[in-house]
Amino acid sequence: MTITQWCVLAACLMPILIMGAAKASLSRISRREGGYDNADPRGWEAKLTGWQGRAYSAQNNGFEALPLFIAGVLFAQMAGADQGRIDALALVFTAARIAYTWAYLADKATLRSLIWAVGLAVSIALLALG
Fold it and tell me: Do residues 24 and 52 lie in contact, with contact meaning Cβ atoms separated by under 8 Å?
C-alpha cells in the first residue's frame, strides 16, 4: 500500500475511533443513568455533552470531509500526478484531521476552524493535481 492509501484508511477509521472512545468512556454508566443506548444510538449520541458531544460532532465532520479527500486522491492518481506529491498532501490532510479532532475535543473552536480550512485546502489541491 502507498502512503496515500494508508492515509485514506486512517481518515476513514478516525471518526469511528473517536466515537468509540466517547462510548467507552461512558461504558461504566448503566443505560438507565444515561450510558450508551444501543437500541437508539442516534438519539443517545444527540444528547451527549462535554467532550463526548464534541467527539460526536468531530465524528460527523470526519465523515463529511472524506468524499472530497478521497475524490482528490483518486483524481490525482488517475491523472498520473507525481505520487510523492500526492503522498505529501495526503499526510498533511491526515495530520490536519488529527489536529482538528484534538482541537474539537479540547474545545478550541477558532483553532479547529483554521485546521479545518487546511484540510479543505489540501483536498482542493489534490483535485487540482488531477
Answer: no
